[in-house]
Amino acid sequence: MSLIAQLSQFEPETVRLADDAVVQFRRARSSTAGDAVTQVLLHGIGSASASWLGQLQQAYRQAQPPSHLLAWDAPGYGVSSALAMDAPSAADYAHRMWAWLDAMAQRAPFTLVGHSLGCLMAAAAAVQQPKRVQRLVLLAPAPGYARAPAALREQKLAQRLASLRQLGPAGMARQRASALLSGAADAQQLSFVEHVMATIDPSGYTQAAHMLAGGDLLADLSQLDCPITVASGSADSITPAQGCMSLAGQIDAPYVSLGPVGHACNLEAADRVNQLLDLCGDGA
Q: pTM of the entire structure?
């Protein structure tokens, strides 16, 4: 069965918030888990909840430790309602995340996991409600461009949005999917990454691109006291390992190499990521 077909085991759910916004998400729960969520997963800019397939599968099939995992579709992705502002900040996404978990009556501390752009959202969320975040795991973190020169920041944003306008989601997925993987990735993984990227909504992607342009991951991480782990693959050309190691060093956090894999490390190094997220019972 293809990776795309395997997604049918984890059909999207939705919840309506107090302000009438909708959040779409996927869920996996082990047979021994209760109602309390143990891991919350936030995807990157060209991705979706589907990108966490390997983690959803592990949580479902592994009885110990008890795992109850939620992977959202960020505002403007899937059927999740977009944010109200044209250029939201990481804090705006974080506010929506907490509103979503409150609507689901999830109050117990959990491991919060971000991938790429999702790391900016995760760090901002931890700043807002630190007592609810037991641990923060940053996979291939995107640092944001707030510290870059204004001209470079504007250039990166303009290039990203021009590519979206010219190619559309499907064309952009065909052109960029291979860049998210190492040369050793198989055809199924490439097809899966392309499939997920092709589903993005241009308006949601545009909002996320503005957030990336103004994001400052280090500023938020510097405010946190919770345990933080940074991890990435050595074949990642999007957020190279050297930059991820440097980030870890600046916040005195451990850095974990996920091996010779690309940016989509949660797919290409699913087993290693599952260990890192305590989904396998033996930790990292």
A: 0.97
